[in-house]
Write a structure and sequence with these properties.
Strand order of the largest sheet: 4-1-5
Number of strands: 5
Order of helices and strands: EEEEHEH
Largest sheet: 3 strands, antiparallel
Radius of gyration: 16 Å
Strand content: 25-35%
Shape: elongated
Length: 97
């Protein structure tokens, strides 16, 4: 998997964490650089985390759907308020107190 970089406001090349809920389809084993392996067994429901761009997540979605899997896909993002709080907890932002 090619490492992404920020390009514009579209988010198409921003690296993000994606959550896939995979159902149906055959047994599947998939390994992408920078992500944990996907090990899906026929007849089960598998939750898989992938790190990549939206384009890479779209490609993984197409690959899994081509195998007959039913998918739900979510992107984990943070609100501006969560970003401020995360940075404050890491000591990167000053408290307003």
């Amino acid at each position: 998997m090619v490492q992404g970089h920020r390009r514009g406001a579209s988010g198409m090349s921003t690296m993000r964490v994606w959550t896939f809920v995979v159902r149906g389809g055959p047994d599947i084993a998939l390994q992408l650089t920078g992500s944990p392996p996907l090990r899906h067994l026929k007849g089960s429901t598998t939750v898989w985390k992938m790190v990549g761009t939206e384009v890479q997540a779209d490609a993984a979605t197409a690959l899994l759907r081509a195998q007959g899997c039913i998918l739900e896909r979510y992107s984990e993002t943070e609100t501006p308020e969560q970003r401020v709080e995360r940075r404050r907890l890491l000591g990167l932002e000053e408290d307003d107190d």
